[in-house]
Write a structure and sequence with these properties.
Layout: E1 2-5, H1 7-15, H2 20-31, E2 34-38, H3 39-48, H4 56-64, E3 69-71, H5 89-97, E4 102-104, H6 109-114, E5 117-118, E6 121-124, H7 126-135
Helix pairs in contact: 1-2, 1-3, 1-4
């Protein structure tokens, strides 16, 4: 299963050793989850690490980043995608282009704008993703 991690998840995981974001990343190998993000999210994460704590940069470099595969941000899609937050469009498009099964993010407003799925890409917070996996007996 391929999970695309948004910047908000990467920052949350870097800023705290506890919580769903870090758990998804540390348990990925155990459960066979492939973790993907984009160069766009990588850059945005690096720019904002100091905002989430002094140890965030160390966690990012040693525990988070090595577990991820980064893809180039895609800015074109052969299907219509309309929702108001222009800055988030590259994330959704890149997750679709990377053939991700899930887009995980910490921002609840994606749900109100796009719903829980777009073109087969399931959208959830890390906590929601983990609850779904637990319901299926995976976690």
């Amino acid at each position: 299963m391929r999970l695309f991690l948004d910047t908000s998840v990467l920052l949350a995981a870097s800023g705290s050793g506890k919580g769903a974001s870090r758990f998804v990343i540390t348990e990925a190998i155990t459960h066979g989850w492939e973790l993907v993000s984009s160069d766009y999210c990588d850059e945005e994460t690096r720019r904002n690490l100091l905002k989430v704590g002094r140890s965030a940069a160390t966690a990012w470099k040693s525990e988070i980043m090595p577990r991820l595969r980064f893809v180039r941000a895609s800015l074109a899609l052969d299907k219509p995608l309309v929702f108001p937050k222009a800055k988030d469009r590259p994330i959704v498009i890149t997750a679709l282009a990377a053939l991700s099964d899930w887009l995980t993010l910490d921002e609840g407003d994606f749900h109100t704008k796009l719903g829980r799925e777009v073109y087969g890409l399931r959208i959830a917070t890390p906590g929601e993703f983990l609850l779904e996996q637990r319901a299926q007996g995976v976690v």
